[in-house]
Design goal:
Elements: E1 13-14, E2 22-23, E3 34-35, E4 63-67, E5 70-74, E6 81-84, E7 91-93, E8 98-99, E9 107-111, E10 114-118, E11 127-130, E12 139-142, E13 158-162, E14 167-172, E15 180-186, E16 192-201, E17 226-233, E18 236-243, E19 252-258, E20 265-267, E21 289-291, E22 297-301, E23 316-322, E24 328-330, E25 339-340, E26 357-358, E27 365-367, E28 389-390, E29 399-417, E30 435-441, E31 448-452, E32 462-482, E33 489-498, E34 511-514, E35 521-524, E36 533-539, E37 547-552, E38 558-561, E39 571-577, E40 589-590
Antiparallel strand pairs: 1-8, 2-7, 3-25, 4-5, 5-6, 6-7, 9-10, 10-11, 11-12, 13-14, 14-15, 15-16, 17-18, 18-19, 19-20, 21-22, 22-23, 23-24, 26-33, 27-29, 28-33, 29-32, 29-33, 30-31, 30-32, 34-35, 35-38, 36-37, 36-39, 39-40
């Protein structure tokens, strides 16, 4: 989060006596084998919105901690945190004590049987700890960290314990003026600072194209660095940071690499490590990197929604790895399509992709009502979370039907709700839950119910539905049962499966040309008949095409990539995809 969230703290810690509140999935829910971004959790409404009378759910700056083989998720201004055993079903926990001003961009770490937690602050605040995180019971570990100089922080903190050195560290920073900082912590003094803090990372947009601010890096505003995180792998220290700012599609994570927790650190020439400027969810910055129970790495990020407020956001996770040369990379190829949940150590970067393709893109719709033409039902199939359908009411029986235009195999759906002129500022209100029914049909007349969650009361603004068994359908019908907002409003209903035809051809005549400004490259190709979209793949070697820019087939067949590093050679390839599958990757072009 940026310094605009450094609001005036009008009170100190609130130690409440209330019992933990749990949001528990229905007992008869089928165990999922897949997940889909953005994460399907009950993003919270919050008090921060009251003064401006703008109501919306949001989540940002995620940290996931693997504690004793189970997962805990913390993120900005949520009034609590989440617990999961499988990275899919997340249970919201309201803790026993919590900062009255809530937590922005929290830091967390697991050490032995203890989970540590710390908030962003420019003042003096405590470190919490718990040995019973599932119960929500938090205690004070350190009442107050020493005060740092004005504007230094620690905002956007990250905790790190080095198992080999047996030492604690903290990293922090959120500014377009100051760098990222770091300091050793003293375990014998309740994790207070040990020695002075050190400056580490300043942005360099003159040489690092991806660090430029604005949509597709086209703004002259001084960029922000934030979201510190430390990962140790094979004896190397990867100091992760977010840049250039959360408001645009190019929010990303980068890394510097060193041989010691306090550096010196060297810029990784393959940056950014996690980047997703195209597709449905755009933006992948400010998160963390964690390891699952099978030894696989994951990178968390913050995509941008910006319907009600410029910093309205969601969170996502993508598989991450270190290659044989120690290059860290997050795989954002098809990152917002369904992926398998991990069950073993991965051996290929793409093996979790289900191959379930998007069936609903730009497909025609019918609806029970729509409030105005600008809120057309056809907007639910445009793959844009900032456009949305609004029904006349919020009552049960409001419905919308998607015509897939042919019989397809349907494996999963995702329903993305929008807070349109909402009046909610407290997620604990009894009315804050989502209920729906989903039907399928081959002829548009005879309908079969394939999903019904009307027996549970969970808030699911980005509900992901994995069908227990694939169904054959041409028509998909969404039927509202309950929403808490004054009007039923949906940005996108996304249908995944297979169209039953052939995958598209590989795009021909790929051209890649480096600009005089080395931070940019121009990519061109021939359009492929029947393609739904394309993935432009690039990287610093022919076998390291780890970056992806996804674009839709109705966009121009050329793209300017503005995320390159000066003095680094790049290689490019492209693939097309449709409702049936993905083409072979084109011949690699580059060395430019």
């Amino acid at each position: 989060m940026k310094k605009y969230l450094a609001i005036l703290f009008i009170s100190c810690l609130g130690a409440t006596a209330q019992l933990p509140q749990f949001n528990i999935p229905a007992a008869n829910a089928t165990q999922k084998k897949t997940y889909c971004n953005p994460m399907d959790i009950n993003y919270q409404y919050n008090w921060e919105q009251v003064n401006d009378k703008i109501s919306y759910r949001s989540g940002a700056d995620p940290v996931v901690i693997n504690h004793n083989g189970e997962y805990y998720l913390f993120h900005t201004i949520q009034g609590g945190y989440w617990h999961s055993k499988d990275l899919s079903d997340w249970r919201y926990i309201k803790p026993s004590r919590w900062p009255m001003e809530d937590m922005c961009a929290p830091a967390a770490w697991s050490k032995d049987d203890t989970l540590f937690l710390f908030q962003s602050t420019f003042q003096q605040r405590p470190i919490f700890y718990t040995t019973e995180p599932k119960t929500g019971k938090l205690e004070f570990y350190n009442r107050w960290l020493p005060q740092l100089p004005k504007d230094v922080g620690p905002w956007d903190p990250a905790l790190f314990y080095d198992e080999d050195l047996k030492e604690w560290y903290m990293y922090w920073g959120s500014s377009n003026t100051y760098p990222l900082f770091g300091a050793q912590l003293d375990k014998d003094k309740k994790l207070t600072y040990k020695g002075d803090y050190k400056p580490f990372i300043y942005l360099d947009p003159v040489n690092h194209g991806w660090e430029r601010f604005g949509q597709d890096h086209k703004s002259d505003i001084t960029p922000f660095t934030e979201g510190a995180w430390m990962t140790k792998h094979n004896g190397k220290y990867y100091l992760q940071y977010g840049a250039p700012g959360t408001e645009y599609n190019v929010y990303a994570n980068g890394t510097y690499v060193g041989d010691h927790p306090l550096g010196p650190f060297k810029y990784a020439p393959y940056n950014p490590i996690s980047y997703k400027p195209g597709g449905f969810m755009q933006g992948m910055g400010h998160g963390c990197t964690f390891k699952d129970n099978y030894g696989n790495y994951w990178n968390m990020g913050t995509p941008w929604i910006a319907v009600n407020w410029n910093f309205e956001r969601r969170i996502e996770m993508v598989p991450t790895a270190f290659d044989k040369d120690g290059q860290m990379f997050a795989n954002t190829r098809f990152a917002d399509f369904p992926h398998k949940l991990p069950t073993k150590k991965l051996t290929d970067k793409d093996e979790l992709f289900t191959g379930w393709m998007l069936l609903s893109y730009k497909k025609p719709t019918m609806t029970s009502s729509q409030k105005e033409d600008k809120f057309s039902s056809n907007l639910v199939t445009d793959e844009n979370p900032r456009t949305f359908w609004v029904a006349n009411t919020n009552i049960a029986k409001e419905w919308l039907t998607i015509d897939l235009e042919k019989a397809c195999t349907v494996n999963a759906l995702q329903i993305n709700y929008t807070d349109y002129k909402s009046d909610i500022y407290d997620s604990s209100l009894p009315k804050v839950f989502i209920q729906y029914r989903i039907y399928s049909s081959l002829d548009g007349k005879n309908w079969t119910k394939i999903e019904d969650n009307s027996n549970e009361k969970r808030d699911r603004p980005n509900a992901y539905i994995e069908l227990p068994k694939a169904v054959k359908a041409r028509y998909i019908k969404f039927e509202n049962v309950h929403v808490p907002m004054p009007n039923l409003a949906v940005s996108d209903i996304r249908v995944f499966g297979n169209g039953g035809g052939s995958a598209p051809e590989t795009p021909k005549n790929l051209e890649a040309k480096r600009d005089k400004d080395e931070r940019n490259a121009f990519i061109k190709w021939e359009k492929v008949p029947g393609a739904v979209g394309y993935n432009i793949l690039w990287g610093i070697a022919p076998d390291k095409l780890y970056q992806t820019y996804q674009i839709w087939a109705d966009e121009p067949s050329e793209k300017e990539i503005r995320a390159l590093n000066v003095g680094v050679k790049y290689y490019f390839a492209i693939e097309s995809f449709n409702e049936n599958g993905v083409s072979k990757v084109s011949e690699v072009k580059g060395g430019i």
